[in-house]
Design a protein that fits this description.
There is one protein chain. The chain contains 12 helices and 12 strands. The protein has helices at residues 2-37, 132-159, 165-190, 196-236, 244-263, 273-308, 333-353, 373-383, 400-414, 431-440, 458-472, 474-494; strands spanning 40-44, 57-61, 67-75, 78-85, 89-99, 102-103, 107-113, 119-121, 317-321, 358-362, 422-427, 447-451. The strands form 3 sheets. Strands 2, 5, 6, 7 and 8 form a 5-stranded antiparallel beta sheet that branches. Strand 7 and strand 8 (119-121) form a beta hairpin. Helix 3 crosses helix 11 and helix 4 (196-236) runs antiparallel to helix 5. It is elongated. It starts with a helix and ends with a helix. Mean pLDDT is 84; it is low at 267-271.
Length: 496
């Protein structure tokens, strides 16, 4: 098993190495290309002389120490002018054209030479330079490669039953990136003259489109969360934790409506720095909400997929995660379903390949319980014909994490093999949580057996794992949010 895992990891690492090399190559190529052609610039005037000639054109460079005028010509009927960089700085270029005795108002263009000797055209707030199309295509290629990598990882997690917060994060970023990529490609196809400045403006607007696209799905999920929580409270009684879905639905709806509402309200752009700050705050909010929505949708998807995973029929041990028992020491229907699912899996495994598994009923004794949950499950297993030698009870744990840790200690005491194949049985809504706790207990290859349960338990499980994702990967999320703030802060300064 370990050899197989090593081969899978080696193959996966090789594929990711190839993808990373391609990504680095694209970045290097884009920079090298701009470095090569950026010291020249072809200025497009969007003016088409009626006679198709340039004899009546006058080009005036205000500071010829910054750029050198090379040539003026027509290209596909359009008047264009070629320049070459001299020194770092900024200058205005005036291009005038005479028709007979009438001299037209000069066209004014704003050029800048940066520290890399690249000429950048800032006319009318745009950002253009020779090679900007290559940069745009490179960005799209990078987004596409990132999408391939994330989907690759997500499918790999699913294929090998590696359900984790990393899988959720991978799926969420994949959704986030796919919407952004589709939006940018659509505009590039329909707007072939797109400049790098226009491209960056598109990126700022993509967050709003993302919220609009995700709104129907998130609205449906929120309604289902609220309804299921009402159902949950009806059957299980009112507790603050049972109202999490309603709380989430209300907060999400208010936050989304407030953000989108303000985004589409016209704002006085004469506000200077206040206008930049206003746009920055809105863009950051839109992207953060969109990012969190993608993560929540991925949480729902991963939690659902975890319940559908087909556990290999080669398990040596099956941990049964405990929960509350009845006052007389017998199993509740919820706990009985967990045990029955474990037994059904073990019997099918034996019929398939003749291999028995050892059951590890796991759960301590609560303050209001007459015996431990582990003992109650052991009694039930014996009553349905499971021999004592195939039962190894764990009866000290008080949480899912302790279920896993203490059960691992029991298993290690029974077998010193490094290739033990372990499964755990629990309610369907609890399976993903089981994977997380198994990983934290150094049982990364443990697989979850899902016992069917009432659907109204699921919403709170989704929310719990969503919060768990945010907490467990908090530094990754903080870095992502800071990157959003830095990116849009720079754009607000350069563009607005």
């Amino acid at each position: 098993m370990k050899e197989k895992a090593k081969k899978i990891k080696k193959k996966r690492d090789k594929r990711f190495l190839i993808l990373n090399i391609i990504i680095i190559a694209v970045i290097v190529f884009a920079f090298a290309y701009v470095w090569t052609v950026g010291d020249d610039y072809t200025l497009h005037t969007n003016f088409y002389p009626e006679d198709g000639t340039t004899k009546n054109v006058v080009v005036d460079v205000k500071d010829d120490d910054v750029v050198e005028f090379v040539n003026v010509r027509t290209e596909k009927g359009e008047l264009v002018a070629d320049f070459r960089s001299d020194n770092r700085g900024k200058t205005d270029v005036l291009i005038s054209y005479s028709i007979g005795d009438t001299k037209m108002e000069p066209m004014v263009f704003n050029l800048e030479v940066n520290e890399f000797d690249t000429i950048i055209d800032h006319t009318m707030g745009s950002v253009r330079f020779n090679g900007d199309k290559v940069v745009i295509i490179s960005i799209i290629v990078l987004l596409a490669l990132a999408e391939i990598m994330m989907l690759w990882m997500y499918i790999d997690y699913r294929k090998h039953g590696k359900f984790s917060y990393s899988m959720i994060a991978c799926g969420g970023l994949s959704i986030f990136n796919a919407i952004l990529l589709a939006y940018v490609i659509y505009y590039l196809i329909n707007w072939p003259t797109l400049s790098i400045g226009d491209f960056l403006m598109l990126v700022t607007g993509a967050g709003t489109i993302m919220l609009v696209i995700l709104f129907p799905l998130m609205l449906l999920l929120s309604i289902l969360l609220a309804i299921s929580n009402i159902w949950l409270m009806k059957h299980e009684g009112y507790r603050p934790v049972n109202a999490l879905g309603i709380f989430f639905a209300v907060i999400w709806a208010l936050g989304t409506l407030w953000t989108l509402g303000f985004y589409f309200i016209p704002y006085d752009s004469s506000g200077g720095d206040n206008y930049k700050i206003y746009n920055l705050i809105l863009m950051v909010l839109v992207y953060i909400i969109g990012y969190l929505e993608c993560m929540f949708i991925s949480t729902v998807m991963c939690s659902f997929l975890a319940t559908k995973y087909k556990v290999p029929m080669d398990r040596d041990f099956i941990i049964i995660l405990g929960c509350a028992i009845r006052g007389d020491g017998t199993l509740t229907p919820l706990l009985k379903d967990r045990v029955d699912s474990a037994v059904a899996f073990e019997k099918k495994q034996y019929r398939t390949n003749g291999k028995h598994a050892v059951f590890v009923p796991s759960g301590g004794q609560g303050a209001d319980e007459v015996i431990s949950e582990g003992e109650a499950m052991e009694n039930y297993l014996k009553s349905i014909g499971i021999p004592e030698e195939r039962i190894a009870r764990e009866d000290k744990s008080t949480s899912t994490l302790e279920n896993m840790k203490f059960s691992k200690e029991v298993i290690d005491g029974l077998s010193d093999s490094e290739d033990k194949k372990i499964a755990f049985a629990t309610s369907s809504y609890h399976v993903f949580r089981g994977y997380i706790m198994a990983k934290k207990s150094e049982m990364e290859d443990a697989k979850g057996i899902s016992a069917k349960t009432k659907s109204y338990f699921f919403p709170n499980a989704f929310l719990r794992e969503f919060v768990g994702l945010l907490v467990d990967k908090k530094w990754s999320h903080i870095v992502f949010v800071l990157a959003i703030v830095a990116f849009f802060g720079t754009l607000a300064y350069l563009i607005f």
